[in-house]
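Colleagues,

Please find the record for the two-part complex below.
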Amino acid sequence: AQSVTQPDIHITVSEGASLELRCNYSYGATPYLFWYVQSPGQGLQLLLKYFSGDTLVQGIKGFEAEFKRSQSSFNLRKPSVHWSDAAEYFCAVAGYGQNFVFGPGTRLSVLP
Amino acid sequence: DTAVSQTPKYLVTQMGNDKSIKCEQNLGHDTMYWYKQDSKKFLKIMFSYNNKELIINETVPNRFSPKSPDKAHLNLHINSLELGDSAVYFCASSEEVPGQGLNTEAFFGQGTRLTVV
């Protein structure tokens, strides 16, 4: 069965600093991978996705993620964080049976 | 122009009551889902429907019953509500990738915050 781990429950960065959120997955085949962001009281918004091809994918709001098969990872990065990036971030994998499995989430706080 | 809409956004009710949450998607997707997000933000799938047929039915009490009148709608009915049912419930939809057995990204509604008192 597929699973997703996000080792960091809570990360705090200063505005303007770089960011990396970690994601590891367990899946028996080539996965479809996603990063979502959830602002307080809101639904989940897709930041980016990986299906195949170039392992470095660009998303919205200046985010990017890199798929590394050897490490079963799909880490999310942003070179310069803005205060509006403070939110909950979820990594997810699409599995057989038309299911999406989500990681536990990483809460991002941004210091002014 | 909302892609996935669910109503109501907030629902406060007493223990023992029966309530429904409605969901509609206008994306033409074949697959719809209900997810439950607990107080620790953990997202867990409850049900998945594909073309009105139940695909996934996770370990959910029988008090929860999904209904899909057509592929654009997936409603969630909850009987005999309990305190532990308090959570945010998300509806989502996605499109199957032909021949892959996998789906493209899920589009989520804004969530329904259910509070049982």
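Chain B touches chain A through 27 residues (CB under 8 Å).

Comments are welcome before we finalize the supplementary table.
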